[in-house]
UniProtKB/TrEMBL annotation:
The chain holds residues 1 to 325 of 411 of the full protein. The keyword Oxidoreductase applies. Residues 114-292 form the D-isomer specific 2-hydroxyacid dehydrogenase NAD-binding domain. It comes from Mytilus galloprovincialis. Residues 9-318 form the D-isomer specific 2-hydroxyacid dehydrogenase catalytic domain. Belongs to the D-isomer specific 2-hydroxyacid dehydrogenase family. One of its GO terms (cellular component) is cytosol. Keywords: Oxidoreductase, Pyruvate. GO terms for molecular function: glyoxylate reductase (NADPH) activity; hydroxypyruvate reductase (NADH) activity; NAD binding. This is Glyoxylate reductase/hydroxypyruvate reductase.
């Protein structure tokens, strides 16, 4: 019986069809074709002998996975812009290129960041609860007041692709000032008139503080008690980056004690956030289940770009677009 000479790819989850359709032509595709996270032992089984791995941010791709895959592994491509789940230095050592999916989810994630910002600043969680539990009395001039974006100072930690897209949205809401902090100045800051400031300055002067940077070993727990203590008591904190940026106990204390006014989180640590998390008891904390890029368009484009990255790495004759780290 003739063997199939096409390279092999393993896909670690059920993903939008676009990517799989592209791969099927050129690869022997095997897949954890389910909506739940692949168990570690199934991941080890699946990667054995493949040429390419199509993975997600929920998969820990470490030395063990690379060893189990074997030396023929040509690429690891994640259907995400974040890649902290992949042992990049181990991949570099082995000359395995890592693909990711920047750009195609920028607008969706910026949109969700704005949704959280607007929802928390205008206290939508409390307002909806008031409707549902009957504590909505009558229209009241001094009830349920929030802080609008008009005239506000917004601090963006990480003015990368997503931070910049959020800044562009903010301008149309009439914010008076955008400040940002990060490892280095952004070449795009001028487009949105954003000022590069120290992290401390940003904390002290911003009405809204947005976590838009990627998670690294250096900024784990960046938003801790010390940071929350520097914020205004009217400050709203929004995080759509990674939960690891935040010390959640410290955030809880800051919100509970009124040290800051509110928080909107699309990302937590761990995920899913346990339903008994104290954060969920707070009316001034809105938590979403990591849906920043969850639009049909963005997820389909992420699936397609991941497949195109794989094709480009495995078929040198095919110069489809490559988004490599
Ligand atoms: C990513 O891609 O890293 C986001 O967190 C999910 O789309």
């Amino acid at each position: 019986m003739a063997t199939d000479a096409r390279p092999k790819v393993f896909v670690t989850r059920r993903v939008p069809a676009r990517g799989i359709d592209l791969l099927k032509d050129k690869f022997v595709v095997s897949q954890w074709d389910r909506e739940d996270r692949i168990p570690p032992e199934e991941l080890l089984r699946g990667v054995k002998g493949v040429d390419a791995l199509f993975c997600l941010l929920t998969d820990k791709i470490d030395k063990d996975v690379l060893d189990e895959a074997g030396p023929q592994l040509k690429t690891i491509c994640t259907m995400s812009v974040g890649y902290e789940h992949i042992d990049i230095s181990e991949c570099k050592k082995r000359n395995i290129p890592v693909g990711f999916t920047p750009d195609v989810l920028t607008n969706a994630t910026a949109e969700l960041t704005m949704s959280l910002l607007l929802a928390t600043s205008r206290r939508l969680k409390e307002a909806m609860t008031a409707v549902e539990d009957g504590s909505w009395g009558t229209w009241n001039p001094i009830w349920m007041l929030g802080h609008g974006l008009d005239g506000a100072t917004v601090g963006i930690v990480g003015l990368g692709r997503i931070g910049l897209a959020v800044a562009k949205c903010l301008l149309s809401f009439g914010v008076s000032r955008i400040v940002y902090s990060g490892n280095s100045q952004s070449k795009n800051a001028q487009e949105v008139n954003a000022e590069f400031v120290s992290f401390d300055y940003l904390l002290e002067h911003s009405d809204f503080i947005l976590g838009c940077c990627s998670l690294t070993a250096n900024n784990m727990g960046l938003f801790n008690a010390e940071a929350f203590n520097k914020m205004k008591t009217s400050a709203i904190f929004v995080n759509t980056s990674r939960g690891g940026l935040v010390n959640q106990d410290d955030l809880y204390n800051a919100l509970k004690s009124g040290k800051i006014a509110g928080a909107g989180l699309d990302v937590t640590n761990p995920e899913p956030l346990p339903t008994d998390s104290p954060l969920l008891t707070l009316s001034n904390c809105l938590v979403l289940p990591h849906i920043g890029s969850a639009t049909e368009k963005a997820r389909s484009a992420m699936s397609e770009l991941t497949a195109r990255n794989i094709i480009a790495y495995c078929h040198t004759d095919d110069d489809t677009c490559v988004k490599q780290l």
